[in-house]
Write a structure and sequence with these properties.
By secondary structure, this protein is α+β, with helices and mostly antiparallel strands. It contains five helices and eight strands; from the N terminus they run αββββαββααβαβ. It has one domain: Roll (Pnp Oxidase, Chain A). Helix content is 27%, strand content 35%.
């Protein structure tokens, strides 16, 4: 899929599609004490500029976000490696049974022995502000060619573009 990296709305549309197809990304809070990012499965609401996550009450993410909005980042890489992105926003703990019902699946259920009413179940909502998106549609053959050409000429390889986009 070709994306015009000069058109922020095209990049944002492609980013939301790629997040929807991703099984995992890395979520972390960047305000407060330093903590490691954690692998999380995203559930998107592009029209609201939101990414939601299931988590347990006993995680650092839930504990930190339950104290109020926390500055956070979500890092995702497309399966085909054409897109890498870092999305910034505010992370909060939410309670929304309709979203739990809509997104509940066997991969989520395995973490909550008490089902949808498990007392450890929490939802996190990332209200996205902006993202930095790297797009490389070069493919393996062009990648090898560009690296060889760069080594021969002393120039930087042309492997894609980086674009900053506003998401909300």
């Amino acid at each position: 899929m070709t994306t015009d990296t000069h058109e922020a709305k095209d990049v944002a549309k492609r980013l939301w599609a790629e997040i929807d197809h991703a099984r995992l990304g890395m979520l972390g809070i960047i305000s407060g004490p330093p903590r490691h990012f954690q692998p999380m499965t995203p559930f998107t609401v592009p029209e609201a500029g939101e990414i939601w996550f299931f988590t347990r009450a006993d995680t650092d993410l839930a504990a930190d976000a339950s104290r109020g909005p926390s500055q956070a980042m979500f890092v995702v890489q497309a399966k085909d490696r054409e897109i890498q992105a870092c999305i910034a926003g505010e992370l909060v703990v939410e309670s929304d049974r309709a979203r739990v019902d809509a997104w509940w699946n066997p991969m989520v259920a395995v973490w909550y022995p008490g089902g949808k009413d498990d007392p450890q179940l929490r939802l996190l909502r990332l209200a996205c502000h902006d993202a930095r998106v790297w797009i490389s549609e070069a493919g393996p053959a062009k990648y090898v060619w560009e690296v060889a050409k760069a080594n021969a000429t002393g120039r930087t390889p042309d492997l894609g573009q980086v674009t900053d986009v506003q998401l909300n």
